[in-house]
Amino acid sequence: MSAPVQPVQSRAENLVRRFAEVYGETPDGVWRAPGRVNLIGEHTDYNNGFVLPFAIDRSALVAMRLRRPGETGEPDVVRLASTYAPDGEELSRARFHTGGLEPGGVGGWAAYPAGVVFALVRRAGVVVPGFDLLLDSTVPVGAGLSSSHAVEVAVIVALNELLELGMDRPRMARLTQYAENEFVGAPTGIMDQSASLMGREGSALFLDCRSLDSETVPLPLARHGLEVLVIDTRVVHSHADGGYSARRSSCERGAAALGAASLREVPAGTSLDRLDAETRRRVRHVLGENERVLQVVGHLRAGDVAGIGNLLTASHASLRDDFEVSCPELDLAVDAALAAGALGARMTGGGFGGSAIALIRREDEERVRAAVRGAFAERGFREPALFTVLPADGAGRIRVTWH
Length: 403
Ligand code: GLA
Hints:
This protein is of the alpha+beta class. The protein has two domains: 8-218 and 391-398, Ribosomal Protein S5, domain 2 (2-Layer Sandwich); 222-389, GHMP kinase, C-terminal domain (Alpha-Beta Plaits, 2-Layer Sandwich), CATH 3.30.70.890. It has ten helices and twelve strands. It has helices at 8-23, 111-124, 147-162, 169-184, 191-198, 242-257, 277-301, 309-321, 328-339, 365-379, and strands spanning 29-40, 50-66, 77-82, 92-97, 131-137, 203-208, 214-218, 226-232, 344-348, 355-361, 385-389, 396-398. The strands form two sheets. Strands 1, 2, 3, 4, 5, 6, 7 and 12 form an eight-stranded mixed sheet that branches. Strands 9-10-8-11 form a four-stranded antiparallel sheet. The longest helix is centred in the last third of the chain and has 25 residues, at 277-301. The mean pLDDT is 96. It binds alpha-D-galactopyranose. Alpha-D-galactopyranose (GLA) binds at residues 42-43, 45-46, 188-189, 191-192, 239, 349-350. Alpha-D-galactopyranose is lined by residues 42-43, 45-46, 188-189, 191-192, 239, 349-350.
């Protein structure tokens, strides 16, 4: 269903060529930022909890060139183009000015680069000159794999380097979160950008969202004959919509009712009896999910990759029944994968659509794919997109030589 993914190096070389055609200049460089899959730890990040995502081998690439002082044209104009364009068009183009950005002032995909500029200006006091940008991404849009964060992260690592800002990765994570929350208007946590910034090939990122302390935990899938299959239900989710922020408020209410600053500060064994039934379910999910993250980390540190399967499946059940952020397509993806032999499966990301992941043995891949496709067809659901992902390195510059 999905086309084979072109190697990053040749994508970067094409992008440089394309950039010269579009803007008549060579870029200052090309930067890559991956999408992410969350292995476990869902709806825990904004509760100061634990997450265990990994950066994936699908990424956003940006070629960028800063406007030079004295160049003709407006010094603070940003011109943008993306190869992800509406049908029949070659590029999707946009522009904005780095001065005077206000939330809501830039729409569509350009809101992500604009949000990063907004965060740098407002939050970090950086003077951002105009620039030209060309974007190409292999992170599927709307699949819950953080395609928007990949764009934001690619832009911030590029600007950090070109403007010599010297920011470390946690700082860039906080700034892109600010961009999402304050400019794009999505009340999301810090997991996605952290995975994109701090991921490591062959590993998952164990992140404490309270301190932003992180540790890479080995996830040697191939050595164990395992794969992570993504099942993109193609049900489009949006975190600017109400469900996500309603869950967030519910957690905040729960923490307050328990006398804690956040759900992370709720001591183990605290009775949840004083909470109303709905809040109790939400809180129970978050407390249980933090525990499951720690257990998965324990298995991985002990080299027991296959042993995490049941914990993944338990996470899904909790998200479905207690946190209530799943949907029939995600539940079907999980059930069909498990029935066809997956070791574990769960929705990944915010929910209400997007993707599920299944941990499978390599030799079961075709069977699981066929089972999931068959189950979707039988229920009359849209055909899902299926592909495997590998844990990849976090964002960085790609060395491209050109003449
Ligand atoms: C989305 C948000 C993240 C996180 C997840 C749920 O992906 O962007 O910050 O809250 O949902 O775990």
